[in-house]
Amino acid sequence: MSESMKVLLVxxxxxxxxxxxxxxYDGYQVxxxxxxxxxxxxxxxxEPAVVTLDxxxxxxxxxxxxxxxxxxxxxxxxxxxxxxxxxxxxxRESALKAIGMGAYDFYKxxxxxxxxxxxxxxxxxxxxIEEENRRLExxxxxxxxxxIITAAPEMLKVARTIERVASADVxxxxxxxxxxxxxxxxxxxxxxxxxxxxxxAINCAAIPENLLEAELFGYERGAFTGAVKSNVGxxxxxxxxxxxxxxxxxxxxxxxxxxxxFLQERMIERIGGRQPIAVDTRIVCATHQxxxxxxxxxxxxxxxxxxxxxxxxxxxxxxxxxxDSVLLARHFANRFSRELNPxxxxxxxxxxxxxxxxxxxGNVRELENRIKRAVIMADGKTLTAADLDLxxxxxxxxxMPINLRAAREVADRKAIRQAMSRTENxxxxxxxxxxxxxxxxxxxxxxYRLSA
Length: 452
Ligand SMILES: Nc1ncnc2c1ncn2[C@@H]1O[C@H](COP(=O)(O)OP(=O)(O)OP(=O)(O)O)[C@@H](O)[C@H]1O
Ligand SMILES: [Mg+2]
Known about the structure:
Elements: E1 7-11, H1 15-24, E2 29-33, H2 36-46, E3 50-54, H3 65-77, E4 82-87, H4 91-101, E5 105-108, H5 113-137, E6 143-144, E7 148-149, H6 153-166, E8 172-175, H7 182-193, E9 199-203, H8 209-217, E10 218-219, E11 231-232, H9 234-237, E12 242-246, H10 253-265, E13 267-268, E14 277-278, E15 282-287, H11 291-296, H12 302-308, E16 311-314, H13 324-340, E17 346-347, H14 349-357, H15 363-377, E18 382-383, H16 385-388, H17 404-422, H18 427-434, H19 438-447
Parallel strand pairs: 1-2, 1-3, 3-4, 4-5, 8-15, 8-16, 9-12, 12-15, 17-18
Antiparallel strand pairs: 6-7, 10-11, 13-14
């Protein structure tokens, strides 16, 4: 996936400092501007999400008027820009004024590259979340194939494949961990196929071996004890439509032979039946098992495998779909609050952070259940991190301290914990997310007594 670099606009008249920042923040495309006009031009040209702004700009490098005028103009043109203001002398007053005008944060000169790097990384992160919010509120293009919610390139690729193969007469095998949406995608294949018959699903792992054959192929009256009347199997039921064979790896070998014969000849025989019956049923199957290994050691017939897997679609886990956990959390929160607890109107910022930081081993199903429970439990207007009760979340009731140094530490710890969790404790990856160097991250981990 090629993603263009995030643009950081640095408004700063000191060319030495410009160079230094450019060099230090090589994870961003750093664009520099030396005065108000250049800043506005760059804002229009690059639409940066984050701007650092020195208040002392020419023609008034020792005052703050020009800086404040620039701040006001940036926020008038692009109100969602995160502006981080640099203050020199008289710092406190101008910092407070800037925040009052709508600046995101401030830092004191002389610049501490690492500290500013953290603020910048957080600003980008917040901007992204807010943007996702806006996109969702405006009913943006988050839904594909009618029912699948995603904005992640990894998943959009899967959706495009499904779209392309749906109308072709090929068998589709969906591979994905539990809760990744296998059944939803199987349904999408059916719906986009234009086939007029039903979508029928059967979970091969949930049905006892001795009953599976009857379920799939049906039986005639008197075929076995208890067969008091004849019964149509799922394959016939899906005539003209699609049969979804879930957990296909669990089909016993004896039945695999029978299934293969159906796939080759498009004919079935009910148990106890005398006549072969022609059926036009499309097969989509899914499994979370490693069928390659199973064919290698003889637990799954290779010829059946090739019949079932003309097209193999690998469904990424939720953790592999960038940004989707938050997107889906909002979707489910909206849906369940409408259905179960209309008082709940939004997710709090800490809930969004918690959703974003958690790894979701049970994928979309786990997320859906977690949000549903939280909506039922919530007693306020917003869904909080406490309502979600996710493992590894920060202790609740932790108010932001008033003291700036302490506040920054709380925020730093949170950002670091999230970056570490999201990268599964990969120092390089976490450092990159945070926009700092590896040694700096090591120092911070030590300083805050966080462990890698
Ligand atoms: N991308 C998505 N957008 C919206 N809802 C989704 C998405 N993916 C999954 N879901 C929902 O999550 C739940 C689990 O999906 P589904 O049953 O399709 O997954 P699965 O892979 O078959 O899971 P399992 O292995 O548990 O059977 C369903 O309620 C489904 O509607
Ligand atoms: Mg399923």
